[in-house]
Amino acid sequence: MKVLETTRLVLRPWTLEDVEDLYDYAKDPRVGPNAGWPPHKDKEMSKKIVESFIKAGDVYAIELKFHHKVIGSIGLHEISKKDEFGVMEQREVGYVLHPEYWGMGYITEGVKAVLSYAFEVLHIDVIWCSHFEFNERSKHVIERCGFKYSFTENKRLNLLEKQEVKCLCYSLTRGEYALLS
Ligand SMILES: CC(C)(COP(=O)(O)OP(=O)(O)OC[C@H]1O[C@@H](n2cnc3c(N)ncnc32)[C@H](O)[C@@H]1OP(=O)(O)O)[C@@H](O)C(=O)NCCC(=O)NCCS
Questions:
Q1: Would you say the CB of residue 111 lies under 6 angstroms from ligand 1?
Q2: Which of 15, 27, 142, 155 is deepest in the core (most CB within 10 A)?
């Protein structure tokens, strides 16, 4: 993973030293359930997740530049191709942020950096992003980043007692991205 830098953030690979920081926000019930996973019960669970991030190599740790503290994550995941865009190279972006840092624009800043890297350096054709119907904060991030609404699907959240939710899916093509700025 290439380290990405913004005005206030460093987006970099996860390390085992980040377990405490992950647990600090992943234990909060406002975080995981909005993204499809349960709050972490203990640090051991956070350690397993950090290990899975390291293995997958597609999730950035969001580090506050001048504090060296990890306050969230942004993933750029490979996905199975959605028919609408046929054979094009597609990815999905996902993110979470420590609630103490909500309302400061950090996620929008980080996602914009990932979009720039994905479109301009990796030459990805289409990036997807989605939010559950009740997740207004995530909806605003998606809109601020320029994604366009595509479709809604019903999802069963296996990690959250098979809760059923409506998931709104958005896409952004490289061409649309080029017209944004
Ligand atoms: C979704 C989530 C990441 C959004 O966090 P957020 O803090 O609202 O998003 P941003 O970091 O982009 O901050 C945007 C807010 O900061 C404000 N802001 C303050 N300073 C800013 C700055 N310098 N630049 C941009 N925005 C700024 C914006 O006006 C906006 O405020 P608003 O929400 O009142 O409109 C967060 O709520 C979260 O982690 N939720 C739980 C997990 C989750 O839902 N993940 C997504 C699953 S789809």
A1: no
A2: 142
Residue 163: CATH number of its domain: 3.40.630.30
- Does 112 contact ligand 1 (Cβ within 6 A)? no
Residue nearest to ligand 1 atom 36, measured at CA: 97
Give pLDDT tens digits for 134-165. Answer: 999 999 999 999 999 999 999 999 988 899 99
Domain span at residue 63 reads 4-178
More confident residue, 89 or 82: 89
Verify whether ligand 1 is closer than 6 Å to residue 107 (CB atom). yes
Spell out the long-range contacts of 97-103 with Cβ–Cβ below 8 A and sequence spacing 24 or more. 97/25, 97/31, 97/62, 97/71, 97/72, 98/24, 98/25, 98/28, 98/31, 98/71, 98/72, 99/25, 99/28, 99/30, 99/31, 100/25, 100/71, 101/71, 101/72, 102/137
